[in-house]
Each structure stands twice: as C-alpha cells, then as structure tokens.
Amino acid sequence: MLEIAKELTTCPFEKLHPSQLNRDDEFFMKLAYNLAIDAWNADEVPVGTVIVHGEEVIASARNETRIANDPTAHAEIIAITKAASSIGDWRLNECRLYVTKEPCPMCSGAVIMSRIGEVHYAAPDPKMGCLGGATDLNALPFSNHKAKVSSGLLSQESLALLQAYFQVKRQNPKKKPSSKVEIEGG
Ligand SMILES: [Zn+2]
C-alpha cells in the first residue's frame, strides 16, 4: 500500500535539459517546466515559474499551496515576491515571467500590480486563466499597466503534466488535495 502511494506521488515525466548556450524564451520556459515537475514530486499542483531580468533568472518558484497551507502560495506569487526583493524594487517592468500555466485571477492581478513587462505562459486555462483564457485582466479599461502576453511554448507538455497529475489524484482520492478534474491552484 505504501509502495503504491509513493509511486503516485512521483512525477512520471522527465525533466528537460535546455542548452545554456541559447537563453531564449524556450530555455526559460523549460526551467519553469522543470519546477512544475518539482511541484508534482512535492505533491503540489504542477506549476512552475521563473522571472528573468535581462538574461538572468532572478526568481524561481513552484506551487507551495499544500505544504505552506496557504491558498496564495502559487508559483507566480512566490516568484514575484522574490523578484522584487532581488532587484530591490516592487516595479518589475523590466522583467519577464515564464509560467507553465496561464495565471489564475490572483496571479494575473499580481502580474498587473507588479507591472511585469512580459508574461509567457505555456498551457492555457479556459476555466480560470485571466490573461485571455476565461477573461483578460490585462484589458481592464482604466488600468495603467498592460503586460505583454504570449503563450504556446511548451503548452502541450505543461498541459499533459497537469492532466496526468489530476488523473492520478482522481484515481487515488485519499491523497488530497484534489479529486476534481479541473485545473486549479496554479
Ligand atoms: Zn495563481
């Protein structure tokens, strides 16, 4: 029984090995993807984020909602706090955020409030995504900041990771946090 439980908490997906020589958008999204795998291995919803300034990663995080018992401990929120601390400025206009799932309402709000310059997300979230999926906080008519948003990099891989995670959770409902199909907590 223990063996099975252990197996189910281990992510069956392999980490990616991006070349350090080509530090492009795909490179940084691969780093975020690897953090999503770390999240799964910690029994968290597999979402990962890195924030980049120039060519340097200044913050990285994965979901920690369960371990921190904190509904705000999404990867993006944690990374935004770290990034602001790293550059000593809460305004992140010069930064780019890479995340494996379209940000939820809370994280999309944090993107706007922190004035992040660019957001690149992998898997779209038509249910809870708020940068164009379910709705678009970036389109608030009187907001004085709009992040440049792009999507699609590693979207299939990141979605497959999320879907597989929730499938495992459904098959093993004793292991919380979620027995629902929907993508949440990212
Ligand atoms: Zn979120």
What is the topology?
Layout: H1 2-8, H2 25-41, E1 48-53, E2 56-62, H3 65-68, H4 75-87, E3 95-101, H5 105-113, E4 118-123, E5 148-151, H6 155-171
Parallel strand pairs: 3-4, 4-5
Antiparallel strand pairs: 1-2, 1-3
The structure holds zinc ion (ZN).
What tags apply to this protein structure?
binds zinc ion, alpha/beta, 186 residues, single chain
Notes on the structure:
The chain is α/β, with parallel strands linked by helices and 186 residues long. The chain contains six helices and five strands; from the N terminus they run H-H-E-E-H-H-E-H-E-E-H. It has a five-stranded mixed β-sheet. A hairpin with a 2-residue loop joins strand 1 and strand 2. Helix 2 runs parallel beside helix 6. The radius of gyration is 16 Å and the shape is globular. The two termini are 29 Å apart. The N terminus is likely disordered. The structure holds zinc ion. Zinc ion (ZN) binds next to helix 5.
